[in-house]
Design brief:
Layout lengths: L9 H28 L4 H48 L1
Helix pairs in contact: 1-2
Amino acid sequence: MLKKRAEISTFELMVLIVGCAAVILGFNLINRVYMVDKNMGWPMVISIFTWLILLVLFILLSINVDSSKQTLKEITEIKNIIKKLTKKRK
């Protein structure tokens, strides 16, 4: 069975664009600093972990937006089921 294609909201599009930009720019900046310095000191380790935490936050944000849409769909389905059941009782 064919499923209806979901619409992408502007917020999701912005999260996608900003997330991709953070991945590309963060990797390039960290790589350039490493190529110049060739030293894995504490500032370099801190910047790498901070960049990874930022990526995890973008992933969690996108998951949260998707799950909130799913929750709203489920709530409307439950309301419709309740309405149908109350009509059947009467």
